[in-house]
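TA notes. Do not distribute before section.
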Amino acid sequence: MIEPGSFYDALAENGVDFVAGVPDSLLKEFNAYIAAILPEQRHLIAANEGAAVAAATGSHLATGGVPLVYMQNSGLGNSVNPLLSLCDPEVYATPLVLLIGWRGEPGVADEPQHIKQGRVSPALLEAMEVPYAIIDPTAAEQAAEQARWAVAQARQRSGPVALLARKGAFARSPQRPAAEAAATDLGREQAIATLAETLPNDAVIVATTGHISRELYEYRKRAGESTERDFLTVGSMGHSSQIALGIALQRPDRTVVCLDGDGAALMHMGGFASIGARRPRNLYHIVLNNGVHDSVGSQPTVAQKIDLTGVARACGYRVAADPISCEDGLAQAGHALTRCTGPAFLEVSVRPGARSDLGRPAEPPVNNKEHFQAYLNGPGGNS
């Protein structure tokens, strides 16, 4: 496997002077190293991958250096527009290196939401005319040379160059950022259970990607309840609130709840404005905020440094309840929220971390969709 420090040194020695990106589980050891050694002005954990590309472009404009942008391959979609309309050699000719975690690589076991993206990732880079190389954990000695090649190629073509990192590419980094103390003792899994128990019986829930969907799924199984009322957004990070908005607009007779995460809410925060502008009376948006990207390595978000409740209020939510940070009062707050006329917002502070034995939904995503759709539109789903 590749030692993160040696790999970064090869990049830095050849002119990489700024790093931005969205954390990825395959890159978490490299991400940990970067977070531990780089000062804030040289490392940005961005809200989304397109924003990371834009910030990298700004750094290049300011210094003339070659920035590095890291992401999971699922984030390529967020970055296509700025890569092609901003950084491309035919537009602003911005040299940068993309370090991409290759989830769903053909022949490597992975979750359903990653399989298609993994299969088409090389072809997508080829269609974008972005040169790339594959970083292999069995060829660690080549990694530094590939890093040097990527920087040189980015300079030569004045445009993006990609390095696709296979699963297991990076060894554990001895340098790790100091963990911040949790602001609450409330666990996310307990918060989800409490909220699920207090919501109206006919409410449908759209749960965001990562641990939140998995914990809601396991709660239903433990409680002996059907999962048909829950749409588990296993991919498409940041879009759950808009899925919920679409349901709420089409089914004003139903109570629609979005269980969101802080990283997801930040990724496409423009969704707050769409909800506030359309003002669906039946939509309830709950953000479980632990201040980290918990599913991919616990890298920090900025969500505990900003006023999410104030954002919701400013965007036009009819109700933006006082944030909750303890078990006492959570059930009452959840119950009170859905008795208000929506759109209504609640932020719940929870501590980072999840059970090591946390499972995943056993059914394929399309089965979840079919069961949810049948519940939403069938006899049991009509009020």
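Switch to the second chain here.
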Amino acid sequence: MPDTTLRHRLFGRGSFPEATRIAEVLRAETTGGVLLMIGAAVALVWANSPWASSYAGLRDTVVGPSSLPLGLHLDLSLGTWAADGLLAIFFFVAGLELKREFVAGDLRDPRRAALPVAAAVGGMAVPALVFVAWNAGSRADLAGWAIPTATDIAFAVAVLAVISTHLPTGLRTFLLTLAIVDDLLAITVIAFFYTDTLQLSYLALALVPLAAFTVLVQRRVRSWWLLLPLAALTWVLVHESGVHATVAGVLLGFAVPVVRRAPGDGPGLAEHFEHVFRPLSAGFAVPVFAFFAAGVTVGGLSGFLDALRDPIAIGIVCGLVVGKAVGISGSTYLLARFTRADLDDDLSWVDVIGLSLLGGIGFTVSLLIGELAFGAGTPQDDHVKVGVLCGSIVAALLATVVLRGRNRVYRRLCEEEARDDDGDGVPDVYQRERG
């Protein structure tokens, strides 16, 4: 008989404190996702209205000094400030979240960490291969291979909120950690594959304020008047080095300690910063970026169809819809097969397919990579936006069909996870599993 003692459960609900924290994070991301949708919708309507030139003029308005000490140039358009500056806040929060998950969260258990990491790798590799297959004949078009590899957590949880789907804790945790690992892998791709020129002197200089920031946060210093200038200087120097400036956000996030130095209750510094900056990221940075990035003038139905005939757009749509579903669900299946892990008793592979389709909602990072690959405002970049929007919408609709069909099961699981018959503040199901 097979040995079942080594088996563990995929998509288990984890600990109650972690489940509570994940729920709080997703509530914030839901609000941000709704604002993201509004920002993108306003941009699309404006860019295709009689006042389209005013939208382009606003996006291309240059703000900032043209010359600074050390030869720094920060005279950037509002669209570039949104992509390079505001998204650095987004990646700073992602770095904090990922580090916290692996240091103090449930993912410090390698068996639990293996699932979102494997799913994220598969969910990036397969969409990239699908895009390359569609664009193999054009070397120039292959620059966009990484566009369909990203999952937008804010957009995804906003879709869940709109369709009123009650995902159980295990699936919610998986979705969040998958998206975070996905984002961090995407920023690594940006750093290595979308850096045209590298100024090593600026990169070396960036290490000085980054090191000072690290020393201060490791000493649990919270004074904004010390940390904020160091973070800003790190961002400026990374920006001038030729590496995309959002990388600075990730490095700063990884520098923040997770564990409290003094014993006792209360959040560590990483959790404190996350509470401070997540509302700024979800409620302002990402929606504003979406507003400036999503405004594509499609030129009516004929222009829209012409854009969709471009192999770039087709590759993105197929990568997001087919590649993500195959990559995430296929990686999960292989992990279960080779590690002898089982799905949680209350879940089925239909749930994995539904989440995999939901992972095909790529927006924020996909649009960013599109601009880096083809240049903001180019015809190819416009086709990228059409492909990302269409692919995300199709993936959201397919995920809705699958997940809504399982909503009765999810509602029952959520009711079980909230049941607290003894009134001690901890749901009974967590106490039974701990016992």
